[in-house]
Amino acid sequence: MKNSYYPHLASPITINGLTFKNRIFGAPMSNPELDPDCNMRKEEIAFHENRAQGGMASVCIGLGIVDAVGRTHTKEVKLYDIMSLPSLKEAANAMHRHNCNAVMELAHGGKYAGARSHAGQEKPLVLGPNNEINPEGLAVTSMTDAEIDRVADCFASAAALSQKAGFDMVLVHGGHGWLLGQFMSPSMNYRTDKWGGSLENRMRFPLLVIEKIRKACGPHFPIEFRMSGAELVEGGYTIEEGIEMAKLLDGKVDIIHVSAGVHEDPDVFTLTHPSMFVEHGCNVHLAAKIKEHVKTPVATLGGLNDPDMMEEIIASGQADIVELARQSICDPFFPEKAFSGRKDDITRCCRCYTCFYNYLTNRTFCCAFNPVVGNELANQSGFPATTPKKVVVVGGGPGGMEAAITAAKRGHTVTLYEKNSRLGGQLLSEEHIPFKQDMFGFVRVLEGRLKRAGVKVVLNTELTPEQAASEQADVVLVAVGAKQIVPPIPGIHSPKVVDLTALHQPSPAVGQRVVILGGGLVGCESAIYLDSLGKDVTIVEMKEDWAADSYFMHRNAMHMYIRNSRIQIQVQTTAKEVTDQGLICQTPDGEKLLEADTVLLAAGMRPDRQLTDAFYNTAPRVFQIGDCIKPGRVLEAVTLGYYRALDI
Description:
eight-stranded parallel beta barrel; globular; five-stranded parallel β-sheet; 31% helix
């Protein structure tokens, strides 16, 4: 029987004897932390199991390294060590508990193997297609025939270990500039022997790996091969050559998984892992073109978060499978919600790179919209039992909304008061910004959850501390947000000075020439939006650099846009006065007038401590949430809202 909501996306597919219950696969996602022996901890297994529980047909654990020489960092599963077997078995069992196939990615860093992976070695061995120096300054040794054969055996042994652990399929990583991709690439493989030069020669190593895995695991153990449909870098191969590569893989592997790009190019990184400035499904066209030339099932991915789009991809024959990574972090229950007619309750990934930043810097799983991510073990038992209480939430931003929803789900009677006519707080600024639609959509999702949870919402009511006390609530949750910083300069109260509420409408209430006072994340994103509307935009920033408060991947994506735009950025520049002509500033080169029709304030926020503190003692227990403590991101507001509600 076909699913009545998504008949193609929900339909099973059988690949080399293995049945997948639908067409949504969990794309490879590696672990930010492991135990000291590089085995998966229970925390990592719980994270992947949560993805499986949400209804995906498979979950792939990323970056299982097949050879000690191939490690790019110290947090990769060691598939060359038999002692990895127990944790891998536990991970596979976790997937199978939810009728989800377990997949292990097989990878080798090649010339990008990191120095940290070879600690204590005076001259660490780094292997690649050519003799060269890698970005970390290590000498790369060109692989001999014997070395190529040995590493191919390592892939086969790693696949056999994965099979022994109970994994249902392996994914061979031949894309993104990893070792096999290095051999496949004309921009990275300069060899003149049988392993380089022609396309057939450059594909010889990947095909040898596949042949050896078949011999080690048998003909009926499925192999997925990940390739970049195009490298998207100067000198790299294009989709035309990608098609020819796929033809050579056709019939030899069981899934051709088409991604894009190489990790080592910062610009291309934002296409391999699409930023909010590119369209959803930006890489699907590569898979669609390859599918026209092969009989092997084709998988696609690339910033996908909409089940309607995924259904169309499958129904139109652009691909047989869609794969999700970040969307499965943001809402692991995405498939279950889609297939049961609850797509309006899906939290859609906004591609803000919160997950990437925390993975790379803090070594944690994290999501701006999902407070459970990274804390799956602590939340496995669901909402803890509690005595029902009367709860008042003051403020309807994302933190207050999340707190109200969580408290109501725990059985409390909750009333939320919001001073404005709409819920959403600062996220209302995103409503009309095209690249922020997924972030604004989070407001709509939370509104629906408030209603279903039975929260009483009172709008247009600025609750005072006295009124809160008169409610005689057991708990008051204060989420009143923060106040905008207004620089104390002459003319700042001029009619031509506006705040971010000027963006709360389809046509921003700004003139043609806009000077944005504040070059942080908010100011820079506002500049990109206004530039896209044809405005003449200048950013004024006191610090030495702009968007210093943004995640470096997102900043790079903004940089890609700004360098090709008309946006002007003045750093190390201080505003002195707003005049009829514009904004007078002190720059490193002296005083300067920036002509402007509108000055947009984006100089930051500060807590209103006087208001926030006034709510103390309005109930037996009073908690503070979000920006009223310290201005931050949606991540902090939502996380605090969720866990404060669990404290009740």
